[in-house]
Queue: 2 jobs
Job 1
Amino acid sequence: MLVSKDLDMFRYFVRRVLQGVLTFFGATFIVYALMFANQDDPLQALAGERPLPENVRQALTERYHLDDPFILQYGHYMRGLLTGDFGISLTNRPISEMMQQAWPVTIRLAVFAIIISALVAVTAGIVSGIRRGGIFDTTTLIITLVLLSLPIVVLAPLAQLLFGVQLHWFPATAGAEPGFYQLILPAVVLSCLVIATQIRVTRASVAENLRSDYVRTARAKGLANRRVIGVHVLRNSLIPVVTLIGVDLGNLMAGAIVTEGVFNIPGVGFNLFRGIRTEDGPLVVGFVSILVIVFLVVNLVVDLLYAVLDPRIRYE
Amino acid sequence: MTDIKAEIDVLPGLDSSARLLEVEGLHVEFRTQVGIARAINGVDLHLDPGETLAILGESGCGKSVTAQAIMGILDTPPGFVTGGAIRYRGVDLLKLPEEQRRRVRANHVAMIFQDALSALNPVFPVGWQIAELFRVHRGMSRQDARKRSIELLDLVKIPAARQRINDYPHQFSGGMRQRVMIAMALALDPKVLIADEPTTALDVTVQAQIMNLLAELRRERNMGLILITHDMGVVADVADRISVMYAGKVVEEAPVLDIYARPAHPYTKALLESIPRLDLKGQQLNVIKGLPPNLTRIPAGCPFHPRCAYARDVCRADPSPPQYEVDPARTARCHFWTEVVGDEPAVK
């Protein structure tokens, strides 16, 4: 029984990894094509307003294979990518070096935001799930409504203005080597992106589980209310929440593009934003490729975690 | 083990000479948005060690609510106990502080439910769910609690208990799951076991096995068993006494043989006549016409009068019929019980 379940799990894992490889190539191809289609004259964009000398233009064109047909360019790029060479940005910096700087910052920011949102959402969700219709529940409902309706492009500058510029509680921008303190405000802003949904899902899940028969059984077993909720209800309620948190990691990466821009944090989003503006193909595709891998891995981990949390799930 | 139990079991005012369980004038209402549903309107029950009391009635007659009130697991709100007493060995459970009331559950009075699949927690192994009782109530170590769980699974005759202890509820068949429920209920050696429709979700052959198991365990442990059911066929073999409930009241209470031979309440009589019988094959089945009353608007007088063939003017007006003593061991809430008892029963 156990062996066959493990084998099923292994088969599932292999299949998911193979699917992931396909997704990876598909996604990079699409991003590459989009950047290619978007390209007007990347070399001129690089030079800005100044005219570009013909010999420089020629040298750069050759270096970035800009004269080759699209599919050849993609081939060149993928060959480099698969051998671990991300190439050189149009600003003449090795992209792998830029990644080494950017990724740790963004990961720190995203993980920080995830922790904040999970802690707040699970706590608030449980409390409002237990006391539905109470003052806390109603207040939370209103706050989540406000958060849901505020896009991060509004929220981020607003928070910066209020808490950074006017109240001076936090630094208004984070700068090149942001520490824990500098990241608090951006992380809170970022977590607002996902916190509302997480609260709602936790609340609904807790409310639903509280009505289930096994809760009545747990009470009939003479367990204290604390244990009924903290062990029996919580363990069941968290199953959908964990999945959501995994999916949210993707949302946070997207949200980081705006947040990092506003708070001047030199992370992935910051680089991507600049790359898109300057039509820097290698830079954008390189970062997006890694983003795709992060998505794939996180999704796979969440799906596998699902089986650990819910024993009824079997992989076939 | 018994020492620890004796120590924990001490309840203030516990009197071993008092009746095992006695419910007196119990009232429960549900305060809902559409009004107050009076689910229980003065229920009296009693139970002695080693005895099986069957509570019989249609859905919504209040039999499960009575059980939940005895256990103290009513959903409050909307459910509220508004009157009466539930005495366990002389201790009124309704007056106990919550902490002591909690200890009564599982230790003294335990309960099993209809659908064991939803009544067991889906994300914990069955062994863990049984062991939890020993760890919480007895402070046992994980290993000791696990050992006791295996013993209990053996007791309820689950094959290969040692291997199955780590399985999850969904990996068991319906009958085996109900056995797990029973094992869990018996873990702390309660004196009263309430079984709320324990076999309704099961196949007929499995039903018999579970009923036999319950009867056997009750005998061995000299427990009082309250069996809640809507199936008159199930109770005939196992029950000693039957309480028939209708609209939140016990309308008839009698030893099992008497009730089958000569029902004293029109409702009981109608229930008996609605059992399909092989010797009456091909004839129209007698069903009880109409529906049980809406509990937010229980009719005046006898709540059964709109569906009753014996009903007369006196039945339609308050007060509702009192408990008439049919003989020293049985009661009926019907003004015309003499007529009902005298009538040729069931078969026509």
Job 2
Amino acid sequence: MLTYVLRTLVKMAITLVVIVSLVFFATRLSGNPVDFVLGEGITREDRELLIAYYGLDASIGTQYWRYLASVFSGEFGLSFLERRPVSQIVLGRAWPSLKLLLSAVSFTLIVSVPLGILAAIYRTSIVGSVVMVIAFLGYAVPAFIIGILLVLIFGYTLNWLPVIGDGSALHFIMPTLAISGMLVAAITRFTRNAMLDVLSQDYMRTARAKGLPEWIVILKHGLRNASITLLSVIGLQIAGLAAAGSVVVEAIFAWPGIGDLLVRSAILRDYPVLQFGVLSVAIVVIVINATVDIAYAYADPRIRLAKG
Amino acid sequence: MTDVTQTSSSRGTPFHIPMWSDANWIVRIALLVGLALIVVALAAPLIAPFDPNDQSLISRLRPPLGFERYKDGFFLGTDELGRDILSRCIYGLRLTFALALAGSIIGLLIGGTLGLLAGIAGGVLEDLVMGMVDIQIAIPFTLIALLILAVMGSSLDVMILVLGVYGWEQYARIVRAEVKKLIQMPFVEAAQAAGATPLRIAFRHILPNVVSPIVVQFTLNFSNIVILESTLSFLGLGVQPPTATLGSMVGIGRDYLPTAPWIVLVPAAAILLLTFAVQILGDWLRDKADVRLRTR
């Protein structure tokens, strides 16, 4: 177990170093960012001044070194556009993103776990087929199309739901649905497969043979055994899929979260913000993945009790 | 002597082209839709009724056939600059197809080569490749795409680069796993005994047996690449106007959603048609090839 944990942590550390370096070299290889931001109409002296201010006149090695130091201190300097500390901008956006994410993940679990169980139990009947077709096709619908259709139907045509911002509980409905689309499809499939593996086990027959009601057999003996695999898969998938989904969905609904910020800073080339935003999201995802990995190993006695 | 016949009795299934007769009606529809879309994309200049970038400001924002204010000839309506939506969709589909195909092939070449090398060479090289795969899996690809597009600018070349990087790790994983399995097989040993060079074994004996899982992965990956491309173009990070892909048509048309929803709905429907068809075909091929590629 200890070796396993150490290996996971080392892997996580390497991944972090790679993404940190990738972000730095990607943004520096493209030339001088000051030119993108300031454009025309600036005097030579002002340009020099700004380059010196942002430390862009040092050698690439020195810049990399300063950059690493700033990563560890969490100090990323000022946004090119807003002239506010980057960390302040990104952190200010974290809570709205987190709220939306929690809402989407809860919705996904509430919908897709029961659907997956149904699809597994009734796999030969029409119920199972319908669920699987929906889950299957849902995986092929981009989040932005769901978002746009929702806006068209519930926002503009029916006038039921607000289209922009995060002011009230009603504001959560459409973004949540748009992010959840692909997640529901994926998690329903996982749940079904995990349940199918369990349903054919001998202990399920034993549980039925001793006269337990069917729902107890399914929930207590079936779902409980499927849940370990399920949780690990959900943990790994949700972090990645949700990060991808919330970027585009937040942009559609002008949700004041990190996803919207990333898109905007990418379009406007606000590199400090983009760097810090990409890094924070990547780090969160990587840490969640490693945690899930270790938790999964801990839940599985075959790994937990293994020596070496 | 072909390796394909030798392995047919073992786990490594040889690639056989699935037949029309094995397909159920859903798959048949998907096949026909897919073929139709390919034909439309290839023959775009012949089919499109108008030049996709021809503006006509008098006939702006006209709705499709069957609605009030419909203008003759513009079956699916016109957009905010009076351009024919049908023609733009046809050309957009063509470009989306081209981008996705280029991206898929690049990803396949990168991932396939690395996977093949890792599987055959083993040792440090294998650890290195698989380490890279793990890192790639751990980082959400959207972030990498945003970063690359912001830094290198949005152009056709950069878009192809981004799509090309996408998905390489899946190919690498699958190819490596297959190769490691195949390399234990008697026919490889026989080839070695017969004096075949490692290169010959790799390309002549191992590669043909990996075709089947690669084809399946290629198809499944294709629909993801279409989604990625449309999403990035939708956000305004893809190919720049006036050139359009289906995704950027949805993105720009968004501003006219309340008054002229067809500008968005038509390309959105085209995207769904494409991803549905490809996804169904990919799933069918996976069933036919009977390989457990992933636990999804």
